[in-house]
Amino acid sequence: MNQLEIFRFALRGLLANKMRSSLTTLGILIGVAAVIMLVAVGEGSSQSIQRNIQRLGANTLTISPQFSGGGGGGMRTAGGGGNTGPRTQARQLSLADAKALTDRTLAPSVRSVSPVVTASSSTAAYGAASHAISQFVGTYPSYFEAVNKPVAKGTYFFNDDVLAARKVVVLGQTVVAELFGAVDPIGKQVSVSGVPFTVVGVLKEAGSTGMQDADDVAIAPLPAVQQSLSGFGSLSSIVVQASGSEATTAAQSEVTAILNQRHGITDNNPDYRILNQATLQETVSQATGTFTVLLGAVAAISLLVGGIGITNIMLVTVTERTREIGIRKAIGAPRSAILGQFLLEATLLSLVGGLSGVLVAFIGTRFTVAGIEPVLVPSSVALALGVSVGIGLFFGSYPANRAAKLRPIQALRHE
Questions:
Q1: Is residue 81 scored above 50 in pLDDT?
Q2: Of 6, 132, 137, 177, which is least packed with CB atoms within 10 Å of its CB?
Q3: What are phi and psi of 256, to 5 degrees?
């Protein structure tokens, strides 16, 4: 009996009971589709987080004050989450701190330093329209490059605007849409908490980052915001851009040394924290990678269940076709032909289910799942399909071997 005949017998056996074959195939289909879809969702989630981090700049350090508790000088926590303890000399971040970080001798790895203040409860108005801006930022022009906020229309403000404390502002897309609609905002004046600001630019659309709308922002020169809205107190944060992605770690060390000296910190318990975007991106990549693998492993359980279904169906098939097996062996069919036929039937069931699962998963990745756009991972498709075929061979081997071992006389006597 040649291979073509074995394939023909196997195909005829599967088509003899289409309903049973379809149900068996469905188990593999669900397993393969689940593996591919969950891995795609994990990958999509990972890429979304990576994009959000990259929006802040891969070579950016964000310095912010870190205090906890109340009373006296307060309690403070280390930038990396270290021990806590009282510190009467705890200091807020100041403009002098930011200027100290621009020292090329002490911080050669630093490209730019942008002090930042944030005005709270800022409501902008233009004509009859008004909008409560989520973030009204006062800073320097270097901030735009450091946090990757390019201008789509008009221009950003310049150092001369900072020195003269000019009340000019660059608006995000959400603010523009709420205040101006289809009107060109460039050159128009908006009133921010009663203070007039002239719009000089519109930021390129950034999209949402989790629960926050990254386009609901306005950026103006630091002195203008301090004079009109926030007051001349401490800074909300300092954004430091390293000279390159490879220099981020060195820049962090230099910044730490300068701030420790200025704040009189002699232990490992500073009153500020430094967020390193490069380190954060690497950590998130590792965490989301583990999460994706875990999702795939959980979904793979359904493949195992599908394999058990194949075993059960093939055992029933062998029992039903015992007389057929006896007749074939009586007329000279070798054991290898019987074994090959039933193994091929199990493998075909898995292969058809696997291919159908790939198709279903491919269609599924065209849709957004829980706000995440799934990203199809080719390796997960190949792996899921390969595992489904392997499951067919593995779980079909016992029924096939049982059929091949039947003695012709016993098989022919079977009712």
A1: no
A2: 132
A3: -60, -45
